[in-house]
Design goal:
single chain; 453 residues; alpha/beta; Aspartate Aminotransferase, domain 1; Aspartate Aminotransferase, domain 2; 5-stranded antiparallel beta sheet; 14 helices; binds 4'-deoxy-4'-aminopyridoxal-5'-phosphate; pyridoxal phosphate
């Protein structure tokens, strides 16, 4: 790799969610090109991308038809605003195609630039909604510990990961958490009914603590907690939480930024969970990471309340790049590819991935294997019986990431020894087999590493 590029990066590029000092020491690794599920770095090292970039390149790399769709739109109309009653063909078509496929009556789509501003937009819409309903006191928000809902100023407060709070003066006083369903480390044990009952009780308890339903605006949940370590709730958890929210007149927001667009199997994980939320947020797989875009789906009653409430006034929420036509054109083509075989391939590849990861269950370091579809994790422990996490001081995350990298595999190594998997849906059998085989090699090497154990 060119040294000057590393130096230029060190001198000028501020990286997202990084220790700036550690990054300066280590230097950047440059990804130079990619095709299918394989990425190549600037030294020519090839790796299977077991994390689809940042769980976003669901379609895989190198689809000419996506490039063509973007190029065609760039030539025809590179930009159109949605302000002043204007619009563009691809944005309207994409909204309509998505609404057709979204669960229940999530018929209205507001496009953003990514996931953080999609979540941020829901907060604004929810405040507006309750104000329009004459219930301004409903201004408290609840989310889950180990949840991730983005990195915007207020969204980061719904997020419950320490690095997103420390030093930033969030969360705000109106942002509250209840414990995660974390089946592997739940004080009530791993029995699904007990885990669901505990979460339901915790939500009710939190609502009561905050002064009752008349104070609570909304509850946020990911169908599977992603950045918290791929925590899969028991079947029926989403529905149980949704039912409590409906009973208490609290809006339910499903954050599908990771789980959307085939990651767990269908286009929306909520469909599998048999849940229709009031709001649903997506990003990542919406454009498969080729260009930035996110979206907020709102249900019929939410949209009608906002529309009636505002009357002839503007609902003052919008971005220059809301419903960007190039992103929308990419979204339409990506959707066509998903339905033209990628979802189907992802379901098969997901089954193979889970089978392969489960085959590692007896490895001395593997405490837990969990996942759904092409979204999975293994949790490494020092002592299986006691579920003792890896000592943080040994920096297991960085060591494991580096080792996997050298073995030709990109994974997400979370700080506590959880390895995350979210490969592109286009993975072939041999891609999946390489992921498993290289994971096993990485685990065996880690077992021999005296500094980590
Ligand atoms: N919500 C969830 C569930 C996410 O996983 C993420 C990103 N990982 C976001 C929101 C924020 O999305 P973005 O990074 O596109 O802003």
């Amino acid at each position: 790799m060119s040294t000057s590029l590393i130096d230029l990066d060190r001198a000028h590029l501020v990286h997202p969610v990084a220790s700036y000092r550690t990054h300066e020491q280590l230097g950047v690794r440059v990804i130079a090109s990619a095709s299918g599920a394989t990425v190549t770095d600037s030294t020519g090292h090839q790796l299977v991308d077991g994390f689809a970039g940042l769980w976003c390149v669901n379609a895989g790399y190198g689809h000419e038809s996506i490039v063509e769709a973007a190029a065609k739109q760039l030539r025809t109309l590179p930009y159109a605003t949605g302000y002043f009653g204007l619009g563009s063909e691809p944005a309207i078509e994409l909204a309509a195609e998505l609404a057709k496929r979204a669960p229940g009556d999530l018929n209205h789509v507001y496009f953003t630039l990514g996931g953080s501003d999609a979540v941020d937009s829901t907060i604004r819409f929810i405040r507006y909604y309750w104000n329009m309903r004459g219930k301004a006191a409903k201004d408290q928000f609840i989310s889950l510990e180990q949840g991730y809902h983005g990195s915007s100023t207020i969204g980061a407060g719904l997020t419950a990961l320490p690095a997103f709070h420390a030093g930033f003066s969030v969360p705000y006083a109106w942002q509250h958490k209840i414990p995660s369903h974390n089946v592997y480390r739940n004080p009530v044990g791993s029995d699904p009914a007990a885990v669901i009952a505990a979460s339901v009780a915790q939500l009710r308890q939190k609502v009561a603590e905050l002064g009752g339903p008349e104070r609570v605006a909304a509850f946020y949940a990911e169908p599977i907690q992603g950045s918290g370590g791929v925590l899969v709730p028991p079947t029926g958890w989403m529905k149980a939480m949704r039912d409590v929210c409906r009973e208490l007149d609290i809006l339910f927001v499903a954050d599908e930024v990771i789980t959307g667009f085939g990651r767990t199997g269908p286009l929306f994980a909520c469909s599998e969970d048999d849940v229709v939320p009031d709001f649903l947020t997506v990003a990542k797989g919406l454009t498969s990471g080729y260009v930035p875009m996110g979206a907020v789906f709102m249900s019929e009653h939410v949209y009608q309340t906002l529309a009636d409430g505002a009357g002839s006034s503007a609902v003052g929420h919008g971005y220059t790049y809301s419903a960007h036509p190039v992103s929308a054109a990419v979204g339409l083509e990506v959707l066509r590819l998903y339905e033209g075989g990628l979802l189907e391939n992802g379901r098969k590849a997901g089954a193979r991935l889970m089978e392969g990861l489960n085959s590692l269950k007896n490895h001395p370091l593997v405490g837990d294997v969990r996942g759904r579809g092409m979204l999975a994790a293994i949790e490494l422990v020092v002592d299986k019986e006691k579920k003792t996490p890896f000592p943080a001081a040994a920096q297991p995350s960085r060591r494991i990431f580096d080792r996997a990298w050298n073995n030709g595999l990109v994974i997400r190594a979370f700080a506590d020894g959880v390895l995350g998997y979210a490969p592109p849906l286009c993975c072939t059998d041999s891609d999946i087999d390489a992921i498993i085989q290289r994971t096993k090699l990485t685990l065996d090497q880690t077992l021999e590493d005296p500094d980590v154990r």
